[in-house]
Amino acid sequence: MKMSILFGIAQMNLGIVLSYFNARYFGNSLDIKYQFVPQMIFLNSLFGYLSLLIVTKWCTGSQADLYHVMIYMFLSPFEDLGENQLFWGQNVFQVTLLFLAIIAVPWMLFPKPFILKRLHNERFGGQTYQTLGTSDTYNDEESDSLSQPHHEEFNFSEVFVHQMIHAIEFVLGAVSNTASYLRLWALSLAHSELSTVFYEKVLLLAWGYDNLIIRLVGLVVFAFATAFVLLMMETLSAFLHALRLHWVEFQGKFYSGDGYKFKPFSFAALNDDED
């Protein structure tokens, strides 16, 4: 279970890093400052800290309840950890991380829409204009319409709502997507219990008889169940769950589907454009 959580957190961090390189490649500094940085702070202040606790527990052999530590980090951040304390200064460290995570949420939400509005006002004076048409094929009515500036007000509410949805989706998705990897732990428990049932209720039960035929039948049934149920069906089930997690949780962290539709080069298309 803990390995699946570590794997999920590592993949989400990798997805955010890939989004950073994507924003850097296209020269979008706003996405770097007001999405990449607060997202990394939020994710690692909470779930990166959980990874640190898991590794620390492994190294020290502590019996601390990590669920209790993470839950009461929010409910009672100043409460004494007692037997759940893994290292010195853990209380102060948790409060600092919680403060950073809280700060990261308005950092993702508010600055970018206001900065976009300010840049729009500085560039266009609050409105945009169409370029004048120079072709002789335009009639007088079209020329008059093109010569007039078309006022397109900056839709601040739309930009703000979009940014709010993006921020809320990331915050909730960081929690739900990390918790989604717990299904791999549930599958491992199911496999363990199923193998125990096959071993105790089939093989050992058949081996308790003195009849050779019953023993052989029990051995054949156990071998069939092991090969086809545990090794094939359960392995395929775990693979499909992991594939779904990687595709949805991991890919959703950096793939946004923006841009323009790909149009392959074609001589036929050139002839159509000329016509």
UniProtKB/TrEMBL annotation:
Keyword annotations from UniProtKB, A to Z: Hydrogen ion transport, Ion transport, Membrane, Transmembrane, Transmembrane helix, Transport
InterPro entries, A to Z: V-ATPase_116kDa_su (IPR002490)
Localization terms from the record: Membrane
Principal location listed in the UniProt entry: membrane
Any Gene Ontology CC annotation: proton-transporting V-type ATPase, V0 domain
Transmembrane regions: 6-25, 46-75, 87-110, 212-233
One Pfam entry name: V_ATPase_I
Any GO molecular function: ATPase binding
Transmembrane helix as UniProt keyword: yes
Membrane topology value: Multi-pass membrane protein
GO BP: vacuolar acidification
Cited function: Essential component of the vacuolar proton pump (V-ATPase), a multimeric enzyme that catalyzes the translocation of protons across the membranes. Required for assembly and activity of the V-ATPase.
Family of the protein in this entry: Belongs to the V-ATPase 116 kDa subunit family.
Name by which UniProt lists this protein: V-type proton ATPase subunit a
Protein's organism: Perilla frutescens var. hirtella (Perilla citriodora)
